[in-house]
Amino acid sequence: MKAKHRLKIIAESGFTLVETLVSVVLLGLVLTIFLTVFTQSAAINKTSEEVVDASYLAQKEMENLYALSQRTTDYRTAMEAAGYTEVEEDSDWMYYTFHHDDPETEDYYTQIRLEKDGADHLHRVVVEVYQQNDDAQQVKMQNVLAWGQEPR
User: Fold this and answer.
1) For a designed S-S bond to 79, which of 21, 23, 84, 131 qualifies (C-beta 3.0 to 4.6 A apart)?
2) Would you say 138 and 109 are in contact if contact means Cβ atoms under 8 Å apart?
3) Residues of the chain predicted below pLDDT 50
4) What pLDDT score was predicted for residue 8?
5) d(CA 128, CA 139)
6) How far apart are alpha carbons 87 and 55 in whole angstroms?
7) CA-CA distances (angstroms) from residue 10 to 17, 18, 20, 21, 99?
């Protein structure tokens, strides 16, 4: 009777401890890889969203500057009237800054460089958008505006 009982135990199939441990380790590795991919994807999406927001702000400021250049010949007065704060001035450039009050864009500020004496009333303009919390430059746009001609 004991011999039949032993054969019955040996013939039963099931997972051993080693097989169970191997499957748990493999499952853990697969889950770790997937979590890493999802985390990287979320970080890339956030960075992409920040660049798109900053690009929008830079384009908006460039369009504002273009509109100002078409309305007036005095860029100093126009910049101050539009809410830009003069930060510094050197022999070639005027430097302005603008802080955004909109809740969606309050994490950014804009710096503008405007060339003082452009040839044939053409002034180079550089718009840079920075992240407020770490002063990291997000976007930089450059253009040439015909400032100083009679308004149309």
Assistant:
1) 84
2) no
3) 151
4) 56
5) 6
6) 22
7) 16, 17, 19, 21, 78
118 touches 147 (CB < 8 A): yes
Contact 125, 142 (CB under 8 A): yes
108 touches 130 (CB < 8 A): yes
pLDDT at 39: 94
Model pLDDT for residues 73-100, shown as the tens digit of each residue: 788 888 888 888 899 888 889 999 988 7
What mean pLDDT value characterizes the chain?
A: 84
